[in-house]
Amino acid sequence: MSHAVHSVHSMIQVPATLSLALAAWVYALGWLRIRRNRLVDASVWRLAAFMLGLLSLWIAIGSPLTAYQHELLSIHMVQHVLLMAVAPPLLLIGGPALPLLHGLPWRSARRSFQPVLLSRCAQSLRRFLTQPVVCWLAPVVALIGWHVPAGFELGMRSHGWHDFQMASFFATGVLFWAPVVHWQTRIAMAQPWLMPLYLFAATLPCDALSAFLVFCNRVVYPSYLSTPRLLSVSALHDQQCAGALMWVSVTLIYLVPAVAITIQLLSPPRTYPSAAQASI
Question: Does residue 276 lie in a domain region?
Fold first, then answer.
């Protein structure tokens, strides 16, 4: 029994799990305070979205799934999709800024964070990072750069570089999804009808990389040639599965909001009856 418990503990990434649990607790506490005081919209669906985002993050970096990331490229690809395309939009839908700020247990901590967030340097950095061109290019550079064999092998050989790779996937994913989640606000691009094109164009680099992994007749990443094979899956077949997984999942995840936004843009504006009409 003790050996089984030890093996489970070794598969679960304790620091990541504790960090995400702390983030969930702080957010939930802040959400309750905001909802009780009715400061801003604190709907249950925002809470649910944020918690699902944290769950996606945990599956990618803290769950037993991480124990097989160096044995199967398809597992590695699941992590990449979760970090870039699943967790970021869910966390952003949760509107994390105010709940996390109000969830801090000490007022002095909240007061110390507010001047930093409102400083001129922070505002300038935010304006630069929320430029649509930056938001679109950042994940493309991260995706292609880390899937070049030299970059990918560096992450496979070094724990530190692997953590940096995962962090860059998540950070650039947040940048990419910020204009999409807030497409009706001033954070998004000036022309809302460009948002479907923004999403569609983002599928092209992923499709190119996925097609290369699927149709290449050799193993692209040598590290997977020397790892133990799980479930008798060959390295080439594993690579093809990883490419197909990225191809299908990313295309669907990006095109669904693109279609939804297009439908909303093409729909006629809602008209509400006047008081005189409502009284008839």
Answer: no
